[in-house]
């Protein structure tokens, strides 16, 4: 699907402009404290001319044939763009935590690492992460490394999503 830059794109958002729109596909998950799983996912990045994107993601667990078994994670937030490809990401999750991320964008890549994680009383123990998003052959590939449940930072999720 072709992608066109919006006329009102804020200049600081140029390095992440390729993310704009709706993405969908499947991914895989693994972690020492979680059984392997597959999931479907939808990501949406929108922009209104100011130096940030609004972000929303929803996921659902699927079986080996891609049939939905149950709902899974949701997250929403803002990707805040600064001059020179520097970014801030603020995310809130249905599982009871909020994160602040910092990183860089450029050359079809977004690389962010957590600076702060705050959890509610009922949230599982999660202490930090790293996310890498890349534009590969027009698709959105990403990987999420996580430190949680007493485990060190290590791979947790990875997916390939296509523009919808």
From TrEMBL:
Entry EC no(s): 5.99.-.-
InterPro entries in the record: Calycin, Nb(III)_bact/plant, Nitrobindin, THAP4-like_heme-bd
Keyword Heme recorded: yes
Cofactor notes: Binds 1 heme b group per subunit, that coordinates a highly solvent-exposed Fe(III) atom.
THAP4-like heme-binding domain sequence ranges: 13-163
List of residues binding heme b: 33, 124, 156
Named cofactor requirement(s): heme b
Enzyme class (EC, first level): isomerase
Top-level taxon in the UniProt lineage: Bacteria
Keyword annotations: Heme, Iron, Isomerase, Metal-binding
Keyword flag Oxidoreductase: no
Substrates-to-products reaction catalysed: peroxynitrite = nitrate
Family to which this protein belongs: Belongs to the nitrobindin family.
Function according to Swiss-Prot or TrEMBL: Heme-binding protein able to scavenge peroxynitrite and to protect free L-tyrosine against peroxynitrite-mediated nitration, by acting as a peroxynitrite isomerase that converts peroxynitrite to nitrate. Therefore, this protein likely plays a role in peroxynitrite sensing and in the detoxification of reactive nitrogen and oxygen species (RNS and ROS, respectively). Is able to bind nitric oxide (NO) in vitro, but may act as a sensor of peroxynitrite levels in vivo.
Name of this chain's protein: Peroxynitrite isomerase
Organism per entry: Nocardioides aquiterrae
